[in-house]
Amino acid sequence: MKKAVFAFATLLAAAALTPSAQAQGIRLGLRAGANYSNLAGDLQNESTYNNKIGFLGGVMLNADLSGDGFLSLQPEVLFSQKGFENKPTEYSRTVLGAGFTEKREGKVNYNYLDVPLLLKINADGFVFEAGPQFSYLLSSSNETKTIRTNTVTGRSETFETENQNDVSGLKRSELGYAAGVGYQADNGLGLSLRYTGAFSDFVKPDNGAYFNGDLQNARQSAFQLSLGYLIPSR
After folding, report:
1. Which residues contact 112 (CB under 8 A, 6 or more apart)?
2. C-alpha–C-alpha distance, residues 73 and 93, integer Å
3. What is the pLDDT of residue 199?
4. Which regions of the chain does DSSP assign to beta strands (E)?
5. How far apart are the C-alpha atoms of 180 and 129, rounded to whole Å?
6. What is the rounded CA–CA span in Å between residue 129 and residue 126?
7. What does the alpha-carbon distance between residue 36 and residue 205 come to, in Å, rounded to a whole number?
């Protein structure tokens, strides 16, 4: 799957660099910015999951559909860091009949390759865009520590995450959406604010141990603020 997506990115770049593509109003571009991500859906202990900032960057290809730049199709291939931080909020839990309070610290990174396909409207520089998005999970890093305190004895224990980079219990591929607004100058430089989300949960149904089952019905989501530059046509 990763090879197919990287091949698609290579084809986008090759198509944009050909003279015939430039003549038909197809422009190659670059995009870089930041994700402000968290989880959506039916989360347990939702107050313990906080927003996280991550990097966003990649290439895009803009194909003019109307002939005057008003309506265009814009596929992109982006490296996108999503995830969340553990807010140090205590919650109650029962383990083998004994009562405990737990508190998590640290953060979790999910590194995705996002491929949005956006229909873009440019009204005198003001941009409106929306479309589907395919995402592939490249890797993950879980830096969570859990502090568990017995409510009777007051004794505390700290547990560090094992197999921090293990993604076997997560769904690698997901289908979602992206929508946003922005501004694009005549020289091709633009600013974009988007929201992206997923249609499906990212934890496999049989992985009930992941964060004690809190994320069994969780989906990835992020606000994205980025700068883009479309290389002028020849």
Report:
1. 79, 80, 81, 82, 135, 136, 137, 138, 220
2. 50
3. 95
4. 26-41, 49-50, 52-64, 71-86, 91-95, 98-105, 107-123, 126-142, 145-150, 156-160, 173-184, 189-198, 218-230
5. 5
6. 10
7. 26
* H/E stretch holding 9: helix 2-17
For tokens 């496999």, the residue is: 204
N- to C-terminal Cα distance for the chain? Answer: 34
Paired tokens of 165: 């980079």
Reading the block at residue 84, the tokens are: 């969340």
**Predicted model pTM:** 0.84
pLDDT per position in the chain (234 positions), as tens?
544 455 455 545 444 444 444 446 899 999 999 999 999 999 888 888 999 999 999 999 999 999 898 999 999 999 999 999 998 888 887 766 678 888 889 999 999 999 999 999 999 999 999 999 999 999 999 999 888 888 778 788 888 887 889 999 999 999 999 999 999 999 999 999 999 999 999 999 999 889 888 899 999 999 999 999 999 876
Q: Using CA atoms, how far apart are residues 214 and 230, in angstroms rounded to an integer?
A: 42
User: How are beta strands 145-150 and 98-105 bridged, if at all?
Assistant: antiparallel
The CA–CA distances, whole Å, from 178 to 103, 115, 117, 141, 229 equal 33, 10, 9, 24, 19
Q: Is 5 helix (H, G, I), strand (E, B) or coil?
A: helix
d(CA 53, CA 55): 7
Instruction: At 163, list the tokens.
Output: 């197999």
